[in-house]
Each structure stands twice: as structure tokens, then as C-alpha cells.
Amino acid sequence: IKVNPGGAVRVPVTGENALTELDLQGSGEKELLLAGPVGSSTKRARRTRLSSLSMTDKENFFTAGSIGGTGELNSFPEDPEFSEIIQKAEQAIESGLFPERISHGSSGSYFVKDSRGNIIGVFKPKSEEPYGHLNPKWTKYFHKTCCPCCFGRGCLVPNQGYLSEAAASLVDQKLGLGIVPKTKEVFLVSETFHYSAIDRAKSRGKKYALEKVPQVGRRFHRVGLPPKVGSFQLFVEGYKEADFWLRKFETEPLPENTRKQLQSQFERLVVLDYVIRNTDRGSDNWLVKYEKPEDTPKASEKDTEWAVNKDPAIKIAAIDNGLAFPFKHPDEWRAYPFHWASLPQAKAPFSQETRDLVLSRISDLNFVQDLSEDLYEMFKADKGFDKATFEKQMSVMRGQILNLTQALKDAKSPLQLVQMPRVVVERSRSGSQGRIVNLGSVFTQTFHCKRPFFSSW
């Protein structure tokens, strides 16, 4: 059993365990039938086989007699804590506490709550992404209809934002940065999601048939709305937009230890954004948590002296990573620059702490190869996955890692990093032997010279 990063356990389905696909007449759905009686052992085997399905199969799978549950579609054996959070979200939805749509933004994203009404995560369905066919926000529809020549970002793969969210969390974990809230691919169903009129009409018809003619209704393998695949990011509490705190820090200088802590967190954000080539990092989609000593819970009398001398703590959270992993550097109308490059923190050279944390990893070719393979296992789950396009995405990422490695070795600043020539490191067609990589015979380094019409660098 191989545990894929950010996903479920995948087990090959052969022989007696093979599932038979049958088209449901007139519904456009598919059902999966299991041979033999459904006992306790069969149910366990069924759950294991479900985790081996690709995303396309999961989207077409409908649990027998289910009205809205998705428990069998979400399996994270390698992460019990995350599984427990998803289970709480599903229980809240079944009890009638539905996710709440977030008003701001250009796509359909939702605050997911638990049974007590507390926000536990942010869910972004694939079909409701900025240019998805079920995006409830009219701004992007107007953009797509009236301005087709400027439609979308030509360097990104369309409708792959949910995978970019999960992949950014994977890169953060592999590099040990700790600034991206845990994010994974999840299936959820809720009446508050934006569905087509056909899906809602089919759901109402099946519920009516189940109520009036139970014998016919029991034949349906799903009664409720179809599940939606998307990214589920854990909710972080106590954070505010970076612009709020950065403006405040200009008038109220931080203590030296706290300032160094902010600089270290900021450099981790720079490393993440540069590696994944984030094209949408403004001051509104990264958060800062600033805790003063008096903001912490009251300490006992013995700890009073320690609390007085305690410095404020700062933590950064990088959210909204859906517009990352381009298959080429921006070279059309605009450049999509890193907005943090204009901050004072970007002018200071990378600290020794950041160099010790990152340099030893990204300078190891086997580490970069393992990271690419882990991302491949995650991205190939999408039904629109194209291997050639994915290899282009990895070529851009390798070029970014190459520049970052050189910048850290030369003790450059983040501002100097973004001004380096853009590099693409392409894989050769032959020369690799397993996971052992020889850079001289396997990769080809080229410079990306074409620049967009509007560029800030």
C-alpha cells in the first residue's frame, strides 16, 4: 500500500475485487456494484477499493441510498487528525449546518463549520473556481463573455486551482516552512453549494420517488446532490490581513527579537511563493497573527515575572495559493509580480536561519526529484491531467529552485531574487536511472527571454 501525499491509499483493483460500471439509464450517472453479500469484511474491502479510485471515478460514484454523505469518498489514513476534522464537517452538514459562502473573492468558496457552529475550514470546489462553469460570482462570467481576448491567465492550467492549493501545502510541508494551513483534496455535498438546475431537479425527483414509491426509490444509488471535489484548507484563528499589521508596524516599531521573527516568517513566505511561482500574492491573501504578552491567557503568580519580559509573537499564514504552478513564465499582457518585493523586509539579505532550513534540501537533486514525483501523484488525479503540461510545470518549478539555490548561496535579498533571469530546467528524454539523478545528462537549462508587455521588473 502506497500512501500518496495529500490523498488516499491507492490499491490496484484486480480479479474478484474489480468493480463493474453500469450506466444508469436516462440519468447520466454511473453505479459501482459489488459482488457477493455485504458483510463487515466486505464493507472494509469496499472502503479500501474506494480509496483506490481516480478522481474521475470518485466523481461518478454514488453511495447506495445516500442523500448527502461523502464519508466513503474522503479517506486519509496517513492523517487521522485531518480525517477527524472532515468527519466533523460532514456530521454538521448532515445535521443541517451547511457551509456558508464567502462574500469576497471572485469564486465560490465556503466557510465550513462543525456541529457547534465554529468555522473549521475553507472549501473551494473545482466547479466554482474563478472560470469554472458553476462559479456563482457574476464578475468572472462577465469577464469571460465580454473580454474573451483577456480571459484568464495564459500561463496557468484552467480549473486546477484546487490542486494548486493542496500542492502548495505539500511543498510547504516538504520544505519545513510551516506557513501554509494544511490543505487536501476533499469531496463534500451541501445544499448551499452552487449546483445546476438539472442537478437540483434530479435530486428533488429522486427524493419524491423515494418518498412516494419506496420500491423504486431504493434502486437509486444516490438520492441527494452529487458531491463536489475541491480543496479543504484548515481555518486559522486570530489572523488578520498582512496590510493591517504592516501599516501598524510602520508607526509602532517592533522589538528586535520580534522583528527578527517577522523577517524569518516573511522569508519563508518568499521561498514558498518563488518555488511554486505564485501569480496572485497580494497583501490581502497572506495573514499575520500578532500576539502581545497581554493577549495570552492569564498566567499564575509564579509566571508573572516571566510574562512581563516576554516578547510579542508573530506568525504568518499563506492562504489563497490556487493561482500557482504555471506551465510557463508570464509572457503575455502582464507579469503578475510578487507584491511583497516592494516591502522593506524584501531588501534585507536572507538570514542564516532560512539558509540552514532550505538550502540543504533544494540543493539536493534527489529531493527535487522526489518533490516532483509527489506532485505528480497529486496532479494526476484530475480528470483533465496532461502529462506533457505537468512536465512543463515542473520545468518552471525546477528553474525557480535553481535560482533560489543560487540566491541563498550568494546571500542575496528577496528583491534581488525576483530580479534574477527567469530559468526553465527541462528534463531530457533519457539518462535517468530511477530516483538517482545526474544533472549533466538529465536536465537542460534554458533562459526564458520573452517578457510581457506590462512588467514591473
UniProtKB/TrEMBL annotation:
Transmembrane segments: none annotated. It is a peripheral membrane protein. It is found in: Cell membrane; Cytoplasm, Cytosol; Early endosome membrane; Endoplasmic reticulum membrane. Coiled coil: none annotated. Its main location: membrane. It catalyses: a 1,2-diacyl-sn-glycero-3-phospho-(1D-myo-inositol) + ATP = a 1,2-diacyl-sn-glycero-3-phospho-(1D-myo-inositol 4-phosphate) + ADP + H(+). Residues 96-427 form the PI3K/PI4K catalytic domain. Pfam families: PI3_PI4_kinase (PF00454). It is an enzyme of class 2 (transferase). Keywords: ATP-binding, Cell membrane, Cytoplasm, Endoplasmic reticulum, Endosome, Golgi apparatus, Kinase, Lipid metabolism, Membrane, Nucleotide-binding, Transferase. PROSITE patterns: PI3_4_KINASE_3. One of its GO terms (molecular function) is kinase activity. Its EC number is 2.7.1.67. The keyword Phosphoprotein does not apply. InterPro entries: Lsb6/PI4K2, PI3/4_kinase_cat_dom. Belongs to the PI3/PI4-kinase family. Type II PI4K subfamily. This is Phosphatidylinositol 4-kinase type 2. It comes from Polyodon spathula.
